[in-house]
Amino acid sequence: MVFFYGITMKTILLAAGRSKRLNPLGDKNFLNFLGKPLLQWQLEQLYKGGFKDVVVVGGAHNLEEISALVKNVPNEVTVVEQDNLDEGMAGAVLAAKNMVAKKDPILIVSGNDVIESSAFEQIMAAHRVAEHGLLLAKEVDSYFPGGYLKTDADFFCKDIVEKPGKGNEPSNLVNIVVHYFGQSGDLFKTLESIDSENDDRYEAALAEMMRKGARIRAIPYEGFWKPIKYPWHVLDLMEHFLYSLSEYEIQNLENKGIEIADTATIKGGVYLEDGVKILDNAVVAGPAYIGRNTVIATNALVRNSHIGDNCVIGFGTEVARSYVGNCVWTHSNYIGDSIIGDNCSFGAGTVTGNLRLDEEAILVNVDGSKVSADRNKLGLIMGSGVRCGINTSFMPGVKIGRNAMVGAGIVVAGDVEEGKYVYGKTELVIKDNTAQLSPAVRAEMQKKLKNT
Amino acid sequence: MVFFYGITMKTILLAAGRSKRLNPLGDKNFLNFLGKPLLQWQLEQLYKGGFKDVVVVGGAHNLEEISALVKNVPNEVTVVEQDNLDEGMAGAVLAAKNMVAKKDPILIVSGNDVIESSAFEQIMAAHRVAEHGLLLAKEVDSYFPGGYLKTDADFFCKDIVEKPGKGNEPSNLVNIVVHYFGQSGDLFKTLESIDSENDDRYEAALAEMMRKGARIRAIPYEGFWKPIKYPWHVLDLMEHFLYSLSEYEIQNLENKGIEIADTATIKGGVYLEDGVKILDNAVVAGPAYIGRNTVIATNALVRNSHIGDNCVIGFGTEVARSYVGNCVWTHSNYIGDSIIGDNCSFGAGTVTGNLRLDEEAILVNVDGSKVSADRNKLGLIMGSGVRCGINTSFMPGVKIGRNAMVGAGIVVAGDVEEGKYVYGKTELVIKDNTAQLSPAVRAEMQKKLKNT
Amino acid sequence: MVFFYGITMKTILLAAGRSKRLNPLGDKNFLNFLGKPLLQWQLEQLYKGGFKDVVVVGGAHNLEEISALVKNVPNEVTVVEQDNLDEGMAGAVLAAKNMVAKKDPILIVSGNDVIESSAFEQIMAAHRVAEHGLLLAKEVDSYFPGGYLKTDADFFCKDIVEKPGKGNEPSNLVNIVVHYFGQSGDLFKTLESIDSENDDRYEAALAEMMRKGARIRAIPYEGFWKPIKYPWHVLDLMEHFLYSLSEYEIQNLENKGIEIADTATIKGGVYLEDGVKILDNAVVAGPAYIGRNTVIATNALVRNSHIGDNCVIGFGTEVARSYVGNCVWTHSNYIGDSIIGDNCSFGAGTVTGNLRLDEEAILVNVDGSKVSADRNKLGLIMGSGVRCGINTSFMPGVKIGRNAMVGAGIVVAGDVEEGKYVYGKTELVIKDNTAQLSPAVRAEMQKKLKNT
Description:
The structure is a homotrimer.
Chain A: E1 10-14, E2 32-33, E3 36-37, H1 38-49, E4 53-58, H2 63-69, E5 76-81, H3 88-95, E6 106-110, E7 113-115, H4 117-127, E8 133-139, E9 147-151, E10 157-162, E11 173-181, H5 184-193, H6 201-211, E12 216-221, E13 225-227, H7 233-242, E14 259-260, E15 265-267, E16 270-272, E17 277-278, E18 283-285, E19 288-290, E20 295-296, E21 301-303, E22 306-307, E23 312-313, E24 318-320, E25 323-324, E26 329-330, E27 334-336, E28 339-340, E29 345-346, E30 351-352, E31 363-366, E32 369-372, E33 381-382, E34 387-388, E35 393-394, E36 399-400, E37 405-406, E38 411-412, E39 420-424, E40 428-432, H8 439-450
Parallel strand pairs in A: 1-4, 1-6, 4-5, 8-12, 14-17, 15-18, 16-19, 17-20, 18-21, 19-22, 20-23, 21-24, 22-25, 23-26, 24-27, 25-28, 28-33, 29-34, 30-35, 33-36, 34-37, 35-38, 37-39
Antiparallel strand pairs in A: 2-3, 6-11, 7-13, 8-11, 9-10, 31-32
């Protein structure tokens, strides 16, 4: 088969997932990194890899937002809706069927994975001598609960095994949904032949094609790969994006309206967007990204973090290894290893615990069961629109739902649901104050002070 | 009528009010701004305006303090006592009757209002061609619950209407008690003719004079005017005084014993009194006033605030938009939009909430009822002599009475009365510690640290 | 009597005490100051004073640790074990009996007292013309509950009176256990003649020798002397050691791997060990000692304190007048007038109260009874291996036992025993959040911010 580069190749980008396990962080497609939503990053990577013609499959919940976003990308984009989101990935691919000619090649890309542009370049290079299909395959060092490829010595796939369990892996190659098919009709036809009740219908179709002798080759990939499934994955992604900041990058300082106090310190790879203000004695230690018009106030420290637009990282706040959305106001807080949505605020003295006292891995409630985040440092996971009082303590791995309010001076050890208001009941004792303060004590303290 | 400038004109300055609604902040006359009590500012303004001969009317509660204060002013001052404070303003004026000749002109000035010197200059200028009387009249933009002047086209007053209600104002001119009368006897006689049970006896006398054809003219005034009635008015006054500080003013640095660390930052209009010490990395962002011998300690931030004498604004404290009395010790606190009396102290980590979670206007208890402070940022209102423990949280608009003690780690959501001791009851659970700390976790943390 | 200098003189250093009243701080012999355990300091002081041949008496609980330590000192050391620790000081001295020839002179030195080298030099000088014995005697200004020496005009001791009570002191000379005896046999024989049930058997032996006419002379001593008995004595000792740091001492900066940020401030007498890192805007105000590889992080302040090895004094922490062991991690804490063991950690926002609200002297539980620390500033006393959560408040003088865990957001007002886990029970109320946030409020706040 020979294709004319970029003419008829279509990409189906699957973006209809509801990101339930990411709750309360919202739709993964619109998580911003370095000023762009994830979906935009993916489209631009595709473009860079030569995949310029894209069908984005969305759902009713995000179609409008997707349509707005695709106006900002260089690709030729059509947005289609997957009507029944319960039909999963197979349903999503089939939702785009009418947009692709049967004989044309297609690339299927999942919005759930973040990879490097090089992956698309590998596929583009390989497809020129291509077979019926190509599957991007991550070489893993340790067990990952995904689909493993069973291949022959020439990397032709014989089967795909979902979550085989540790020790039963047929190879070290995990299927990443960057799938090329020489003729889209092959895939669509097989998909339609599989029982639509099958949860893994798409993977079953792949396996079926392999069994029937389709020459589908695995393309081993060594670059960055991160499926974004649980909230803490945002931190891994953030780290990935931050480490792409090579060094201290502030261009056109005057034009961009950036103001940095003489006494502020900026070091490491730091990207400051337009209008950023860094006040006295503030420290930004890279890698770090600071969004538009955000203020890093006096004596604040931001390190290894990603801060959105229009935030105020207030006096004496430390933000460490955290992802902070837009319009977040902090004030003398410690935000560590945390993910904070947009439009939140924290009263003075409120802090996130990010390490258990027993220093074990942090557990997080996901859909009713405890999931280990597999890291011993994890702080707060907060949805958008939350207001939080002063001197409150968030235990590691706690999730606060959107538009919740959290009162002052409490220990929040469990999750708070969306739209709830949680506060504490303190029993106070009131007595007469019978203490007789000796003026001598203050006088002595003043005297010592004088001699300092 | 013709007067000889400055010879026989007497001013009656009314300073007998008990400032109940200002509770727990004490007598408004002695609130210090920029190093001087309010009463002294008023006397000096009068002097500057040409009113050099003053009778100050006090009450039993403050007569002594007034007598001490008036020694420091350039005016010729007599202090008289109003015996029955329940007789209000009329009683206060009549208390001074014997000090003024019937034929002599007088100026009646209330200690409840803060205005600019220019107001007195306006009156002084106008009285030369004067009528029976002159009333200073503030032109207001929005409804103010005070006495409105009903005037003719030439600003001659026909009536005075107390709190007419929004929409029923007879003019946009609100009566400020800077009242000139060509012959004091006119006022005294009319006052004595009004039923002494009448709460608004003084205003009733004015209205009576107007009705009887006295030529009393309103003098429209466009300058600063702030009646000081509720605690939060102290913040408005503070702002007024602070904005009068034109720029960075430190004169005779060496003589005044001021010490400023090389790493400290001072910016904007800041007035430092003798003996002030600003330690390392501290920031004072004007407009700000720092009283004698006060220490702004390492990493502290003071902005838009007024700090008294002999304070220690301790390590890592932020004081923002707040009025702090003398001898106040703070330590890693946030004091925002607050008014703090003399001789108070705050344990480390104690903070003032200054914004409700619902971001509505703050309500304050005044004499048993909730009054809106008409501002969504308001912190703590604390009387003198209070000691407060560590990590305590004060809710917005809370009032702490004098000589109270406030325990550690509590949320103070209601007012605390004078002389009370309030503390929390925490129920603690004690178990065996069964955690097995893995040395690997610390080792890993140490390693990461090394690589920072 | 004539001795050949340094040939046969033996010192018995008593180090078998169990330091019970120091609980939870552990064995006083191994408290580190300026990088060396107290026992090592004593041995080196003895060496410097000419006492090069030492028998150290330990107990089963510390024999191994003593044996390891003595490898690092220049003295000739033998370690012996006191089998029955209940036999106190007399038992300890007798445990070393076999190591000393009867005719040889000995020096008895207690590990409970910290003194200056000059004391040993005084004894060494005096012994050349010596009598049967010499007792170091501190001249005290005020009553100390110790053993007072009754002497004649030539300082020959006639009796020793234990805790005579204020006003009954026979002199102003308090016995310090630096006791020289010309012939060790004299002491041993007398000791053995005293009833072994006698608690003050050693002192009784001294008194007995005096009564029997032994010429035992008091050597008045004016230098530093501090018996180390209660936890807060560690702070006194620390102060003593810190004030021996003459000035800013950093030698061989490059070789020692010390890193100091340009924006950091170091002032006063500060000793930095190898590998110390001082990050941005941190302030170390001497006298202070910082151990090996310790990090003083951004915006932290350490003043008048002694910090061990491998610590992280985290962002925004203040450590004031405190002794901190090795491997302690802090984070936005205030540690004031406190003693912290090794391998502890403090969550963000956790602070030590160090002054009672009534400003009275702090009381500490020692062996079941309250003992006044005789100082109004005293913070936390924490054993090794403690983990503490965020936003917790320690009341002044509280003791936390080793390997305890302390939960978040609580007020710890009583002691916590070794190996316990204490946490709080907060009752939270959860309601629907009915607040309607007005976007105008945020917009206004943003606008004000812009104009700053």
